[in-house]
From TrEMBL:
Organism of origin: Nitrospirillum iridis
Protein name: Assimilatory nitrate reductase catalytic subunit
Organism placement in taxonomy: Bacteria, Pseudomonadati, Pseudomonadota, Alphaproteobacteria, Rhodospirillales
Pfam families per record: Fer2_BFD, Molybdop_Fe4S4, Molybdopterin, Molydop_binding
Gene3D superfamilies: 2.40.40.20, 3.40.50.740, ADC-like domains (2.20.25.90), BFD-like [2Fe-2S]-binding domain (1.10.10.1100), Dimethylsulfoxide Reductase, domain 2 (3.40.228.10)
Required cofactor names: [4Fe-4S] cluster; Mo-bis(molybdopterin guanine dinucleotide)
Sample GO molecular function, one term: metal ion binding
Amino acid sequence: MTHTAPEAASVAATGTVRSTCPYCGVGCGVVAKPDGTVAGDINHPANLGRLCSKGSALAETLKNDDRLTQPLIDGRAAEWGQALDLVAQRFRATIAEHGPDSVAFYVSGQCLTEDYYVANKLMKGFIGSGNIDTNSRLCMASSVAGHNRAFGADVVPGTYEDLELADLVVLVGSNSAWCHPVLHQRLLAAKAKRPLRIVAIDPRRTATCEDADLHLALRPGTDVALFNGLLAHLADQDALDHGWMAAHTEGAEAALAAASAGAAQTAEITGLDPADLARFYAWFAGTPRVVTVYSQGVNQSSVGTDKVNAIINCHLATGRIGKPGCGPFSITGQPNAMGGREVGGLANQLAAHMRFDQPEALDRVRRFWRAPNLATKPGLKAVEMFDAVLDGRIKALWIIATNPADSLPRAARVREALRACPFVVVSDCWPNDTTALADVVLPAAGWGERDGTVTNSERVISRQRPFRLPPGEARADWRVLASVAQRMGWKDAFSWSNSAAVFREHAALSGFEKGGTRPFDISGLAMLTDGQYDALAPVRWPVRWAGDAGGRLFGQGGFATPNGRGRLVPTPFRPPATRTDEAYPLVLNTGRIRDQWHTMTRTGRVPRLLAHTGEPRAAVSPTDAARLGLTDGDLVRIESVHASTVVRATIDAGQRVGELFLPMHWTDEFCSAGPAGRLVSAALDPISGQPELKLTAVRAQAVPTAWRGLLLHAQGVRPQGVGYWSRVPLGNGHAFELVGSEPLPEGAAMSPFVEGLLQPPAGAEWLQLTDAGRGTLRVAILVDGRLESCLFLATGPAAQLPSREVVAALLGERVQDEARPSLLSGRPPAGVKAGGRTVCACFSVGLVTIQDAIVARRLTTPEEIGACLKAGTNCGSCVPELKEILRDVALSA
Ligand SMILES: Nc1nc2c(c(=O)[nH]1)N[C@H]1C(S)=C(S)[C@@H](COP(=O)(O)OP(=O)(O)OC[C@H]3O[C@@H](n4cnc5c(=O)[nH]c(N)nc54)[C@H](O)[C@@H]3O)O[C@H]1N2
Ligand SMILES: Nc1nc2c(c(=O)[nH]1)N[C@H]1C(S)=C(S)[C@@H](COP(=O)(O)OP(=O)(O)OC[C@H]3O[C@@H](n4cnc5c(=O)[nH]c(N)nc54)[C@H](O)[C@@H]3O)O[C@H]1N2
Ligand code: SF4
Ligand SMILES: [Mo]
């Protein structure tokens, strides 16, 4: 079949293409070069050429090996025409029989603005339901709700430059060193030049805390008390800006009263040392230029919206907003979290920042779209949406660019819902745990192939441009949505010829009839020609006329409320909805690690991004570890009311007693433990509907280790019959860590057990070596004389496993007869010394190499390590760890 993707036309045949990184909301500019490499764009305002470890590894995600390349119906390859007809027909029939609210879309902050616009228009304007929600519900919903309450619209007032201009930057529930690395590096560069204080507020001691002047390890979920205490302190110290408040805000009295009422209990509620609290409060009160940055430690909470408003209150009360170096700053997670909010991708927003509770907005949007069935009320929010799928209210669901089978709370229930749903469509680039449950899988054009725009955390709209063809028949999501809409009978309203045309329509709607009076107004971009759209340089909204560009907002008031005043919102402290009890006495916190992106569909395929952290370990405080009888690397069972899982433990002194932390990334594809989302509870913020992903009540128990193993395999198998396994890609195959909690089987039972681990093809040749004295078992499988897999098992504490790096080199290679004994010995060839666990992913520098260099060359600073080994000189995200290693080496010297 010939390739018909219309994207082909806009792919630059040769030359350098500027685009935007598809990972985090920093929104770094990248340049894709004809030699296949991807580098930072020195002209992009977000990063000025810098990239983090994930951005630096983008080129390595462009292999087509296991991409989805054809539509699948019930798991079988199908033609696009067939698949599109089927989707349109099933949605139409479901709506005809059960009404518009019986169908739903679940989309993503990783959709481009154009995809999002088309999906929103189709659901809210033409199908006539509010049932489109996005994974931003799990991510930004509390910030959106807080912004709407305070500002009258979902607006981030500041810019990244404010972090550099501030004298105090407060990071609340944000591990920016790992999650917004380039922005964090900008902050550190500013701190290196002049006095700038950083305060990190996080129950855990994270990499970000390494760079902080003060770390407040508060009790989870108590940020509201902390910021209420701050507001009360500011009032006591006469540090409020009464003039500014009188001119530009309302609600101060009630907010202050609520804050003062609980102020005496702040230390008790937050569990913080009163002296630390006093220090933070004094710094805030005494520093005119303060930026408060917040992320998921704030949003993902049953009291998330109140946390947001408690923070914003302190800025409104001191006039510290919309001025250089000042402001509350919600940093977004996904590359287009902002764009999705702009089009109205959340179930409770209408379109272009207009809301359902504004009758004139409904009328305006209806006329603009010529919408036959405009939805007039909000739809179901993500968690409720999947509840409705499970109980049969929703009968047809289309999921685009998100993996809810892993990333939603109570993941097992979500999978049950997908199984129960009569019709599930999933658009993705790779197979994952959600596509596995779809009736129809639609192959999507991915990063590097798709064409459109994204908006980053500082309201800058940037282009993602294609520089390669989609593999096979993959297509851009907006085109697929438009094709289905046309087949559902709405030909004219969905007949754009390219993404520029979609963007122009979106831009026009944003300024329609009340141009200039809504903060989100990009009508100045509505007349872009195709060529101008292609060439569009990063631009910050609002863009009210051609050539306009936004700056800071609200410095002189002018909020988007009916009377133009910003609102202080009373936020009396409420404890989070999730409570521990006798049965589930521990708090499970979940979040991110440095080099992985969400459910690992891309970063999990890049060997060097798994070199730093290769498995999902649960961080446990030394006190809890001692109580549970755990040492580093032991297995631990973690159980919530929803599920239980077994992972390895890391003893982490930065962890508060009574609290565990588990990365969110690993899925059933990568680890026997499956997704953390399976354990996580779904307590919701009552205003935003955002789930409390940071707080689940659990219990933990040590699981004995009977043996350990290393499996190397040319294929990404899922080992059977072992207590714990985790997999990392190697480039030429896969490496598995195995831990057995039951003694190894004996006698005749051994062979099926080994087969379950190795899953050898029929006719393979087996080599086996057992050393009962040492407690080791070694097996190698050859197929056509090449090494297909090998297994090393060690029982007893003294038994050693070979180094992964050494054996991995042989995988897939032809094994000569004379090499067979040494293959099973697993010893490195003479003279080879492994570099140890990778610390710097950008330059693949290992721990041992760094430790050796520190000792041999008497290095004392990360800069000296950089000069010597290059480690830490690209993205800088390993610099906190380099500092730790320097400290450790100094201590052990
Ligand atoms: N490497 C990497 N970077 C990413 C992503 C990724 O997958 N990998 N994803 C992107 C996305 S979509 C997002 S949303 C962002 C998220 O970026 P962050 O929000 O920085 O990341 P998280 O690790 O989810 O959570 C941040 C911190 O909140 C803390 N926390 C937990 N409970 C509380 C609390 O009650 N109060 C406070 N103050 N803190 C608390 C956690 O301990 C954690 O360290 O990262 C983006 N960047
Ligand atoms: N326990 C716990 N759970 C969490 C969180 C947490 O902190 N703890 N964080 C939450 C947050 S903040 C977020 S943002 C979510 C993220 O959760 P998800 O959105 O489920 O995570 P991703 O793995 O990024 O899923 C994106 C999917 O889109 C696919 N994809 C990439 N590009 C394209 C494209 O162009 N088109 C299409 N159609 N598909 C594409 C990818 O292959 C991948 O399968 O997780 C949430 N879940
Ligand atoms: S900080 Fe890293 S992940 Fe985020 S946009 Fe920049 S390069 Fe991409
Ligand atoms: Mo997110």
